[in-house]
Design goal:
Structural class of chain A: alpha/beta
Number of helices of chain A: 13
Largest interface: A-B, 51 and 51 residues
Radius of gyration of chain A: 21 Å
Strand content of chain A: 5-15%
Number of strands of chain A: 14
Largest sheet of chain A: 8 strands, mixed
Oligomer: homodimer
Shape of chain A: globular
Helix content of chain A: 40-55%
C-alpha cells in the first residue's frame, strides 16, 4: 500500500456515485475564485512585464514580506529575506531531501506519517526511524531514545520530520509541552526539525499552540507553510522559513530544479492577501470544515462499533480510526466500495509496515450529509468484519 | 565562472545605465499580456474549480493534446498521452538528471553548452564528456569516438545533451545530416539523446530543420519544448515527449518533486493557444528579434577587429564571439562595464574549462540602437585588449 495504491483508490473513488473520504483535497466551494479573478486581472493590467517574465528564485519579494509578517504572529520573527517561496510544500520536502540526505541516512518520522513526505524523501534512499504517537502527538521520550542511540552509533540521523498540527493522517496535535521538548532535543542533538504545518490555520476550537520554531534559538527548525489550505492548492505556492545558510542552499537547489516559481500566481496571491482578506477567509473555511468534522465525528460515535478508537481532531482535514486488531482496512475497503464509500487504509502511512487495522477519513471535501451516510456504512462494514472474525458459537 | 558568477554579472548589469547583452530573457514587449489577461478571466469565471484545485501530475490534458498536435507538425507524431507538462524545461532537465544519473556517470554535452543544463545535472554528480562544435553544431565524428570508447570501457555514458537549434550560448544550429547521424548513433549505442529545443520556433531565415526526434525509431530521443520563448517564461511551462516507460518514471518523479504544475496557468495557456494564436504571435516575435539580430550582427561586422570570429545565428537569442587567443573575456568585461556594457564571458559554458577568449551576446531583450552602440563599445574594448597584448615596437 504505497503512493501508487493510494492513487488507484483515489482514481476509483473519483466516480460520482462514490462518496469518497479517501482524498485529501480542500473544498472548491471555499476557494476564493472571485478574488483571484480580480487579482489576475489587476496583475495582468498593471504588472504584466513582471508577471510574464522569469522571476527571482527566492520568490516575489512583497509576498515573502507578507509571509514574514504573518510568521511573526506565530512566534517566528523574520523578514522577507528569511522566507523563500516554493512550488507548494512538496517542493520544499523534495529540496530538503536533496540537500540533507544521502543513501542510508536516517529520517525520524511520526508513525504514522504524511505519505507525501515519504514520497519526497524516498528517492534519496534514506531509512526511516519511527516514533510512536498518542493523542498528544509524537512521543518525545521515544524520540530522545532514538537520538541518543544514534549519537552513540553511526550518527546517521539527518532530520526529524513532524506535522505538529492536525497531522495528516491522524488529525492529532502535538502538545505544547512536547513542542518545547522537541525544540530542545533538536538543539541538544544538533538535529534539524522539519516542521511541516499545512493545516495550522485550520483550527476549529481552542487556541493556537506555539510553533516548534518559536522555541528554536539556534536555527535548528525548518518551518514549512502553504497557501494550499487557506487559499487554493492550484497555484502551488508554499514557503520555507529557516536559517540563512540553509535558505541559501535551498535557493541554489531551487534554481537547479526549475529556476523559479511561476511569477503571475505569486503576484496575484499577494494581491489577494495584502488587505487582510486571509483572516476573513479562513473564518469561512473554518466554519465549513468545522461543521463537516462535527458531522463525521458525531456519526462515527453513533455508528462505529465499540472497540474502534477514532480521533476528534481540533482542526485540519482528517479523522483517523483504529479498528480492533484483526480487522484489516484493505479488506474493509473492498467491502465499503461495494457500498459506494471510499477511504484510505492506514498501512501506507506507516514506514514500519504496521497499521493494517487503521484508516484515514477525509472530511474537508464531503458534505455533512454524505459524511453521516458514509460513517453509517463504514460502521456496518466494520461490524460485518468483526462478525466474520468472531468465533462461531 | 560558474552559475553564481553569471548571476553576479546579471545582478550588476540590471542597473538602468548599463546596456546588458548578458541576460537570456525574452523581451516583455512581445509577450501576450492582453491575451493572458482575457484567458485568466475566462478560466476563473468558467473553470475556477479546476483552476484552483490540485491537478494531474501529467499536466492539463487539453494542453497536452495541443502540444501533441504541434509536435506532429515537427515530425514527432504523438498523442496527449505522450506529452507531459513540467515547470519549464529546467524541471525536465532536473528530473532527467534524477532518473538517469548516478555519481560518476557521464553526460555528453556540446562544448560550449547551456549552463542551465549543467546546473540541473551537476547535483547528481556526473562527469561531462565534451564534443567540439563547428558552424554545423556538434561534431558527430568526435561524438562517435566518445561513444565507442565508452562502450569498450566503463559504459558510464548515460545520455547526450544537445540544443540543436540556435544553441545557447553559440547560436549555432546542428545540420540536417548531423541530426540523422546523431539519431543513428543514439540507436547504435543505445544511449538516449536529450533534445532541448527552446528556440526552435524562433527561426528568422531558412526553413525548419527536422527535429532529431523525427529520426528516432526506437524511443531513444527525449524531446524538450517550452512556452517560455513563444509566449512567456513567467508561467514556467515546458513539456517532454519521450517513450512511455520514461514518461511514467518522469511523472512519478514529478509527483515526488512538487505534485503537479500549477493548474490555472496551464488552463489559461491552453485558452491563449487553442485558436491558432501562437503562429500569428511567433511571427511578431520573429520580426522583432530578427531586426535585433541584424542590428547586432551588422554592428559586429563594422566594429569588431579582424581576427574576432562571431556567429550569425539563423534564429534564437544569442550571438557568440571568439576573440584572438590571448584576449581574456573576463578582463574585457571589467573594461566594458566601465563603459556601461555587459555580456557573459564564455568560459562558464565550457565544462572543460576552455573558452577564456569567448563571449555570449544576447540580442532578444535589447533595442537595435542599443545593440549597435554596445557592439561599437565592445569592438573598442577588444581592440584595446589587443593593443595591450601587442609586442611594443
Amino acid at each position: 500500500m504505497g503512493p501508487s495504491d493510494l492513487r488507484e483508490i483515489l482514481k476509483y473513488s473519483d466516480k460520482p456515485e462514490i462518496t469518497s473520504l479517501a482524498g485529501g483535497l480542500p473544498a472548491p466551494e471555499v476557494m476564493p475564485m472571485d478574488e483571484y479573478r480580480r487579482a489576475f486581472e489587476w496583475v495582468l493590467e498593471t504588472d504584466g512585464d513582471r508577471a510574464l517574465q522569469y522571476g527571482p528564485a527566492e520568490g516575489y519579494e512583497p509576498l515573502r514580506a507578507w509571509v514574514a509578517e504573518r510568521m511573526g504572529h506565530r512566534g517566528i520573527p523574520c523578514t522577507a529575506e528569511g522566507v523563500r517561496i516554493v512550488n507548494g510544500s512538496q517542493q520544499a520536502l523534495d529540496l530538503l531531501g536533496r540537500l540533507l540526505l544521502n543513501p542510508g541516512d536516517v529520517v525520524i518520522v511520526e508513525n504514522p506519517t504524511y505519505i507525501g513526505a515519504l514520497q519526497a524523501f524516498t528517492p534519496y534512499q534514506p531509512r526511516y526511524a519511527v516514533v510512536p504517537m498518542d493523542d498528544d502527538g509524537m512521543q518525545v521520550d521515544a524520540l530522545e531514545a532514538i537520538l541518543a542511540q544514534d549519537r552513540q552509533g553511526a550518527g546517521r540521523v539527518k532530520f526529524i520530520y513532524a506535522q505538529p498540527n492536525f497531522q495528516n493522517p491522524t488529525g492529532r496535535t502535538l502538545s505544547a509541552e512536547r513542542r518545547v521538548r522537541l525544540a530542545q532535543l533538536a538543539s541538544t542533538y544538533g538535529v534539524p526539525v522539519v516542521e511541516d504545518d499545512p493545516y495550522g490555520e485550520l483550527r476549529y476550537e481552542g487556541a493556537h499552540l506555539p510553533t516548534i520554531k518559536s522555541f528554536d534559538t539556534e536555527g535548528n527548525v525548518i518551518y514549512l507553510g502553504t497557501f494550499s489550505k487557506i487559499l487554493a492548492p492550484g497555484f502551488r505556492l508554499g514557503w520555507v522559513v529557516a536559517s540563512k545558510p540553509l535558505l541559501d542552499m535551498l535557493t541554489e537547489a531551487k534554481r537547479a530544479a526549475d529556476f523559479n516559481t511561476a511569477s503571475a500566481p505569486q503576484i496575484a496571491t499577494y494581491k489577494v492577501v495584502e488587505d487582510g482578506f486571509v483572516d476573513r477567509h479562513i473564518e469561512v473555511i473554518r466554519n465549513v470544515y468545522r461543521a463537516r468534522r462535527d458531522a463525521l465525528v458525531e456519526a462515527i460515535g453513533e455508528h462505529f462499533p465499540l472497540g474502534v478508537a477514532s480521533t476528534r481532531p481540533h482542526g485540519g482535514m482528517f479523522v483517523w480510526a483504529e479498528m480492533p486488531g484483526p480487522v484489516n482496512a484493505r479488506e474493509m475497503l473492498m467491502e465499503a466500495l461495494e457500498q459506494q464509500v471510499a477511504f484510505v487504509p492506514g498501512v501506507g502511512f506507516h514506514p514500519d509496515g504496521t497499521g493494517a487495522n487503521t484508516m484515514r477519513l477525509n472530511f474537508s471535501n464531503v458534505t455533512p450529509e454524505k459524511l453521516r451516510n458514509a460513517a453509517r456504512i463504514l460502521g456496518g462494514v466494520i461490524q460485518h468484519r468483526l462478525d466474520l472474525l468472531a468465533p462461531t458459537v
